Amino acid sequence: MATPFETTVEVRFGDCDPAGIVYFPRLYHYCHVAFEDAWRLALGMPYPDLVARDRIGYPTVNVETDFLHPLRYGDVATLRVMVTAVGRTSVMFRFEARVGDRPVFRSTHTTVCLDLDTFEKRPISDAHRAAFARIAE
Question: CA 35: distance to chain centroid?
Fold first, then answer.
C-alpha cells in the first residue's frame, strides 16, 4: 500500500520577508527539500546520485499553489509528499504543508524526466515508476 512521505523543515530567520512571514519563493525551496528527502528515504536513492551519476533529473515545469496560512520564523513545517500521477515522461507531485494542525499551503508540481546530457525528455524507467508507486496517492 502506498504511503505519503513526510519530512520537516524549520523556518530560518533568512527565509522571512520584512512582514515577518516566509517569503513565498522559499516555500518552493521547502518543496524541493521535501522532494529530495523523499528520493533518499521513500524512493531509495539520494537525488544527487540520480543527477550526478545517472545524469537524470526531474525538473519542475508547472506549479499550482494555494497559500492557506503564513509561516513565521521558528515554525517547524511538516511537508507531506505524494505522487498523484505518472505519465510516460512526467510525474505530478503534491505537497501539503502544515504546522501542527494548521494547514499552511498545498502545491502541485509537474516534473519531467530529463536526460541531463541532452536536455531531452526521456521515458520514466520501470524502477522509478515502482518507486513513485510507494508514495502514490
Answer: 3
Residues 6+ apart with CB under 8 A from 134: 2, 3, 42, 43
CB 22 within 8 A of CB 71: yes
Give the pTM: 0.94
Per the listing, cell 508507486 goes with: 133
72's grid cell: 513565521
- What number of helices (H) and strands (E) belong to the chain? 3, 8
Q: Which residues are catalytic?
A: 17
Q: Which helix (H) or strand (E) is 51 found in, with range?
A: helix 47-52
Q: Which helix (H) or strand (E) holds 33?
A: helix 24-41
Give the amino acid at 112: V
Class of domain 5-134: alpha beta
Local confidence pLDDT in tens for the 137 residues of the chain? 678 999 999 999 999 999 999 999 999 999 999 999 999 987 788 999 999 999 999 999 999 999 999 999 999 999 999 999 999 999 999 999 999 999 999 999 999 999 999 999 999 999 999 999 999 98
